[in-house]
Write a structure and sequence with these properties.
Elements: H1 2-20, H2 31-34, E1 37-38, E2 43-51, E3 57-67, E4 74-75, H3 78-84, H4 101-108, H5 110-113, H6 117-129, H7 134-143, H8 145-157
Antiparallel strand pairs: 1-4, 2-3
Helix pairs in contact: 4-7, 7-8
Length: about 180
């Protein structure tokens, strides 16, 4: 009986070892799970389009140069995709969606912000690249969504119209408060 248990244990161990050696390679992922996945290398996967030989647009999953520090070998769950309001068919990686109040509301909602660390990490870094601290953006979004949009726009995340005419008020706004 003891030898059977030991043999069974070795068999199970070999299965777990084999499963743990399976790597996630972005280029091998299907289009429907590419976006918001992280390769075994720790780099984010992104969906890109190319024009095929026949002239049709084709989707390809590629490895980006964006490294995730605390995660690897991760495919985002459908629950988090829904909770955070992201789209698996997103092309590339962009902070543009942070300018949409409906998206920011979903991203900052507890169902996403507290339960989906991969998506939150991605948008935390995208917001930081725009000079915005995501926790502050979420706090502002909960208390005053319109001000949130103004602050994000005035941070330089998106250009405002500029007028060269003297006395024109287009593009003028109060100065941002120092942080």
């Amino acid at each position: 009986m003891a030898s059977f248990k030991f043999t069974f244990f070795l068999f199970l161990s070999s299965l777990f070892l084999h499963a743990s050696l399976a790597e996630i390679i972005c280029e091998d992922l299907p289009k429907d799970v590419c976006a918001f996945s992280i390769a075994s290398s720790g780099k984010r996967c992104l969906l890109e389009t190319t024009v095929g030989k026949d002239g049709n647009v084709e989707y390809q999953c590629r490895t980006s140069e964006v490294v995730v520090e605390r995660m690897a070998e991760y495919i985002e769950t459908d629950e988090c995709v829904r909770a955070c309001g992201v789209d698996r068919n997103s092309i590339g990686i962009s902070s543009d969606s942070l300018l949409e109040p409906q998206f920011t509301a979903k991203l900052c909602a507890p169902a996403c912000y507290q339960k989906c660390p991969n998506i939150v990490d991605l948008y935390f870094n995208l917001a930081a690249g725009e000079g915005v601290f995501l926790p502050d953006l979420c706090d502002a979004q909960r208390t005053n969504p319109r001000r949130t949009m103004f602050e994000l726009l005035s941070s330089g995340a998106a250009p405002s119209p500029v007028s060269t005419e003297p006395g024109s008020s287009v593009g003028e706004a109060p100065a941002s408060a120092p942080m």
